[in-house]
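Bench notes, afternoon.
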Amino acid sequence: MSKTVVIIIITVILLFMGVVGAGFFILWNKISQISQTPPNTGEIPIEEEENVIGPLYTLDTMIVNLADHGGKRYLRVTMALELSDAEAQATIESRLPQIRDAILMILPTKNYDDVSTTEGKIALRTEVMEKINGLMTKGQVNNIYFTEFVVQ
């Protein structure tokens, strides 16, 4: 036998094995899906509660110097506040200068080590949320999402 005939035979065998393997894989998935399907008992399935977020209020970008030695690092942050309801949005809008001031009093007290880790960002989020909720008269801030977080 020549070398090309052997290569052709090996290629055909490999293709055949691939097709058979793919067939078994598809068959196995179909059998798995059928065995995992609960029997129809005539009951209406209960839908799970969706993860619904409240109204969002995006604050303007804030740039502050960090409390590091030499003052050469700064933080640029943009936040979206998840509010409990529409009344909370009205409160945010009426107290926006106080809220920005509170945030601007917290951010410059942090140094690079405080905000460079995930744990530090979570702690910062919690601190800012507690401060804002202390200013709220109606509704509350349920979560804060950092849409921009740059430390340089």
